[in-house]
């Protein structure tokens, strides 16, 4: 009797929690979803796509970009139907990737999947810290080159910038959850558009200056087949890393208001965000490769493919920093 009463109390408590969660006010729309996705997807990796395109060549480079865009949308579309289960429209909410795995596949799978997910988050977090500090250091180097000449010894450390990034993230981590981050995503998305446009514009201006389109169908030549294979694999990996948001899709979908059903809204947001993202990726990758050919740097801004106008390069690097500050919170808020 006591066991039955305890079970009824516990079951009632769980039902109350679920009812309270279902009744939470959600205000997300297609546009806020696009902002969240673009913030998570478009990172400083967009500036390395020119190098990736250079390794793959004029046919394979754009082809791989389009291929990963299609794969990413299909993955996002399938995952979005797991937000509610067992029915994708009327079922119980699964507000995170881990919750969906736990409900659909069981607790053991959830532990294993969560382990892999957190390793992925950990790696992305490290990449964001390093990239942010590199961009801050690039601003210093750009000003140094402008004052002392392009051959000056402008070497700076980046440890202080890593610490500064950490302090800023501690402050931003006081934001309660992703439901309150729409403004941060919008600012970060604007920053990502800014430096992507700048990288695109600088590449286009370089092509006009050269008066010809550089590059080849085979990409950058190498001395051995092994070197070529290694560079191709690196390039494909960089492109794959440029589309990382499926593992936080359900967290973004959990901000969507309904009706209409959340899976319909997030599919529209995914389609819009991926189309916008792929357009920028193709433009930055192709114009960067067309501008520099076999000498395409790993990063158009920090690799100093461009020295002038120095203030524009500085502004673009500052935009990268501001974007990654916001993207860190959106992508890793569950991890932190």
UniProtKB/TrEMBL annotation:
Organism classification: Eukaryota, Viridiplantae, Streptophyta, Embryophyta, Tracheophyta
Superkingdom of this protein's organism: Eukaryota
Domain Amino acid transporter transmembrane: start-end pairs: 26-333
Transmembrane domains' residue ranges: 30-51, 58-79, 115-135, 156-175, 181-204, 273-292, 312-335
Keyword field: Amino-acid transport, Membrane, Transmembrane, Transmembrane helix, Transport
Subcellular location: Membrane
Alphabetical GO biological process terms: amino acid transport
Main location: membrane
InterPro entries: AA_transpt_TM
Gene Ontology, cellular component aspect: membrane
Pfam family, one: Aa_trans
Official protein name in the record: Amino acid transporter transmembrane domain-containing protein
């Amino acid at each position: 009797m006591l066991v039955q009463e305890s079970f009824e109390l516990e079951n009632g408590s769980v039902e109350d929690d679920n009812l309270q969660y279902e009744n939470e006010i959600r205000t997300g729309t297609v546009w806020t979803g696009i902002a969240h996705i673009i913030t998570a997807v478009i990172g400083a990796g967009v500036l390395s796509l020119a190098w990736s395109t250079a390794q793959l060549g004029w046919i394979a480079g754009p082809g791989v970009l389009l291929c990963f865009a299609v794969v990413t949308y299909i993955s996002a579309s399938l995952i979005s139907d797991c937000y509610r289960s067992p029915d994708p429209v009327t079922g119980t909410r699964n507000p995170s990737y881990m919750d969906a795995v736990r409900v659909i596949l069981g607790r053991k799978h959830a532990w294993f999947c969560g382990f892999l997910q957190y390793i992925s988050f950990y790696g992305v977090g490290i990449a964001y810290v390093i990239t942010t500090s590199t961009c801050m250091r690039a601003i210093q180097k750009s000003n140094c080159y402008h004052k002392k000449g392009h051959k000056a010894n402008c070497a700076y450390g980046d440890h202080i910038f890593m610490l500064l990034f950490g302090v800023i993230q501690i402050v931003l981590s006081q934001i309660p959850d992703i439901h309150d981050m729409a403004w941060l995503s919008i600012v970060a998305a604007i920053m990502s558009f800014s430096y992507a446009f700048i990288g695109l514009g600088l590449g286009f201006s370089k092509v006009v200056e050269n008066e010809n389109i550089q590059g080849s169908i085979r990409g950058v030549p190498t001395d051995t087949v092994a070197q070529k294979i290694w560079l191709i694999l690196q390039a494909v990996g960089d492109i794959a890393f440029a589309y990382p948001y499926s593992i936080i899709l359900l967290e973004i979908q959990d901000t969507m208001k309904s009706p209409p059903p959340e899976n319909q809204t997030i599919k529209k947001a995914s389609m819009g965000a991926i189309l916008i993202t792929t357009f920028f990726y193709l433009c930055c990758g192709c114009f960067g490769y067309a501008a520099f050919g076999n000498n395409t740097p790993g990063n158009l801004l920090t690799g100093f493919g461009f020295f002038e106008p120095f203030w524009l390069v500085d502004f673009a690097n500052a935009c990268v920093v501001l974007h990654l500050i916001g993207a860190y919170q959106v992508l890793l808020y569950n991890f932190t």
